[in-house]
Design a protein that fits this description.
It is a single chain. It is built from two helices and four strands. The chain has helices at about 5-15, 45-55; strands spanning about 20, 25, 75-80, 85-90. About 10% of the residues are buried. A hairpin with a 2-residue loop joins β3 (about 75-80) and β4. The strands form two sheets. The protein has a two-stranded antiparallel sheet. It has one domain (about 5-90). It is an alpha+beta fold. It is globular and about 45 Å long.
């Protein structure tokens, strides 16, 4: 999970206008239908990678530890989520 600082930086790099209110991010205006969360961001998004590399440990929310893992271009992969933790799996 991304920290608020990381979400704000991501929005800046991705040129997305987000509204921040009561610890939540929204697109356009504050409405539950407009909630914008980090799970909406593709894990290979170049702006997300840049944010994590720029901010290091500050990119992670309280109990998370976000890191960038380099995967060769010719390798197929997917992410498995278990108990709130995301794990990269190489397709074989």
């Amino acid at each position: 999970m991304l920290s608020d600082k990381a979400m704000k930086r991501y929005a800046e790099l991705a040129n997305i206008n987000l509204v921040y209110k009561d610890g939540e991010f929204y697109t356009e205006y504050v409405d539950p239908d407009n909630l914008y969360v980090d799970s909406d961001i593709s894990r290979d998004d170049i702006n997300l990678i840049k944010v994590i590399e720029e901010l290091g440990g500050d990119a992670s929310y309280k109990h998370s530890d976000i890191v960038v893992k380099e995967i060769p271009d010719n390798v197929k992969w997917h992410i498995v989520e278990r108990h709130g933790k995301e794990i990269i799996r190489i397709d074989g």
